[in-house]
Amino acid sequence: MGASRGGWGAVCRTVGLVACLLISGNALAQDAPAEKPAGQQGNSQEQPEKPESPNPAQAAAEKTKDVTVQAAEATKKAGQAALVKARDWESGWVAGAYAGKDRQLVALTGTQREQIYLQETWTTPGAYLKRMFVAGIDQARGTPWQWGGGWGGYGKRFASREGQFVISNSLTALANAKLQYEPRYDQCRCSGFWPRTRHAIVRNFVTYNRTERELRPQWGLYGGAFGGGLISTAWEPHPRNAFAEGGRAALGQAGFGALLNLFIEFADDMNRKLGARK
């Protein structure tokens, strides 16, 4: 019995010791900090949260809105540019070459004279529109009556005016180049309706020489008009008086040229009234 009691005592002591060791190990394990994963070791700061990805449908809608606004703006600018271009009649459609009031006149070179001649005779729509207009007047008056009416008669009258105009412009360009006269109209640097009107009418009869300061009679302009009218009788129905036709052409230049100068003089004012220019 003594030995049995001693054995049980040893067992109890052993079990108690093991229990104490287990309790101490659990306590130490709870107090120790948790070990970080291998990928996060050495990074003491928390990683920021990633923003949520935008909605694809919303992004597409915003992109479509931006493209639409840009296209509308581009269309608006293109429309405004087309309006200005359509209303700027004096930029070659009707008036041809001229010098604005803020532009200093400089003597032209031979190449520049050639360019002005080609522009005013062949390469601008306004040159043909003028002949169409005058041929329409001839058609309404029925002159010459031998060409009849209808499109056939109008075609003959337009061809006749075309030939007469080309001859007149060619003679005028040659004469102005020989005399070194200024072929362009210069807008008045004055102000007021009547001073500008007077300037436009007077410039149809006088122009500058090569100094661009001294005025001379428009010998080349009216000589070319007279020559064109005279030569046109070569293809017009007879009887036609060549000198009478030349005189009529010169008178026509006096009237039509004054109207054209007035148009050029006040073209900027008309554009501003129409809203094409600020």
Describe the structure.
This protein is mostly helical and 278 residues long. The chain is built from eight helices and four strands, in the order H-H-E-H-H-H-E-H-E-E-H-H. It has helices at residues 2-31, 56-87, 110-123, 125-141, 150-179, 193-202, 219-231, 242-274; strands spanning 98-99, 185-186, 206-208, 215-217. The strands form two sheets. Strands 1-2 form a two-stranded parallel sheet. The protein has a two-stranded antiparallel ribbon with strand order 3-4. Strand 3 (206-208) and strand 4 form a beta hairpin. The longest helix has 33 residues, at 242-274. The radius of gyration is 48 Å and the shape is extended.
Indicate the topology.
Elements: H1 2-31, H2 56-87, E1 98-99, H3 110-123, H4 125-141, H5 150-179, E2 185-186, H6 193-202, E3 206-208, E4 215-217, H7 219-231, H8 242-274
Parallel strand pairs: 1-2
Antiparallel strand pairs: 3-4
Helix pairs in contact: 3-4, 3-5, 4-5, 5-7, 6-8, 7-8
The number of helical runs is 8
Estimated helix fraction: 55-70%
The total count of strands amounts to 4
Alpha-carbon Rg, integer: 48 Å
Strand order of the largest sheet: 1-2
SSE class: mainly alpha
Which stretches of 5+ consecutive residues score pLDDT under 50?
1-5, 36-44, 83-91
Q: Describe the main β-sheet briefly.
A: 2 strands, parallel
- Overall pLDDT confidence: 80
Q: How would you describe this structure in keywords?
A:
278 residues; mainly alpha; two-stranded parallel ribbon; 4% strand
